[in-house]
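User: Before I run my own analysis I want an independent prediction to cross-check against. Here's the chain; please return only the structure tokens and, at the end, one sentence I can use as a sanity check.
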Amino acid sequence: MTATSGTAAESGRTAWRNWAGNVRATPARVVTPASVGELQEAVRRAASDGLRVKAVGTGHSFTAAAATDGVLIRPQALSGILSVDRAAGTVTVAAGTALKDLNRALAAQGLSLTNMGDIMEQTVSGATSTGTHGTGRDSASIAAQIRALELVTADGGLLVCSEKENPEVFAAARLGIGALGIVTSITFAVEPLFLLTAREEPMGFDRVTAEFDRHVAENEHFEFYWFPHTGNCNTKRNNRSQGPAAPPGAVSGWIEDELLSNGLFQAVNSLGRAVPAAIPSIARIASRALSARTYTDIPYKVFTSPRRVRFVEMEYALPRERAVAALRELKAMVDRSDLRISFPVEVRTAPADDIPLSTASGRDTAYIAVHMYRGTPYQAYFTAAERIFTEHGGRPHWGKVHTRDAEYLAGAYPRFGEFTALRDRLDPDRLFGNDYLRRVLGD
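Assistant: Structure tokens:
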């Protein structure tokens, strides 16, 4: 996989919407630059035309972080691995590269990221800018694996950032929500390709919450899913293995990952949307149908799964020690309500990191994510869940549905002022601003 170049494509006013379909925008023009120089020129031209400019990847965020009525930059032509430094253990990749393409290209070279999220459709810049993460006892989000980056700033200049070069910008821009500029390339830490053994096992809600701290401590990567309207969960433990590789069989893997997790799940959610009263019965049957399985494979094939059923999601990062109490409150709320929830609730963890606006900044973290099938009213469920999460000191995922504003977030992030001061310096006229950033960062 190599970086591409050519001529920038530009189109006039065209409607854009995100993957979930809950965010729409009509930019004045859409630009697909084929080089960094063309991207810089697009930024300068936007400024001279009095238009704001935003970059958008594959639209997997559920917030309007990338929405604009100005110039929408599509970076997909800026893709591919730019360089590999095996001695330093790094790879530099163009910002529009999809994570799935990066993972496959790294594996072909015998390399891997240390940790990943559970989907890989996003571009590397979109994923890191919003704080995409997986689960890990010791290994953190994708942004925390960044070792350097390049950023087009509001004056059209190109800023090279690392711990040694423009370190204050590097510290913040690893997760910048698009507020500091447009990322053109990212250098990630990588390591030699390794194997993970995944152990998936059904477990009761009371047991998994009682044993949560032990499971986190004993496993490199632990997560679980609770099925609302039931006391049933499915746990997943990923740990490094000496091998040999033992991936799921072609037939059993297809049944689990495509037929059950996508095809049947799509049908079940469609039925639940049409007949909400049936959801609790469906959930009880579906959660009991889960069976244990163990397999060993290279990292991206273990960490990630296909996600073809579309949904809307809210996720909050809580101090890890508060997660179990919040989850029990969430279950009690659902049990006593008239809500009908067809999607499982996902629980993951991350160690503290040093990125100012990372949801794990400065504290060991547990994530609780709630989902609703696309097209199903979600506001009542998300509002009730958000009330619980904020009472436990939660920080909303930047790319997922939430109602928090700058006043709340300034109290949730000790380094919030550090980030906004840097934004004032790099983009005083808010060329990269939009309504979402005004709400969450102030103006």
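Sanity check: Residues 2-6 have pLDDT under 50 and may be disordered.
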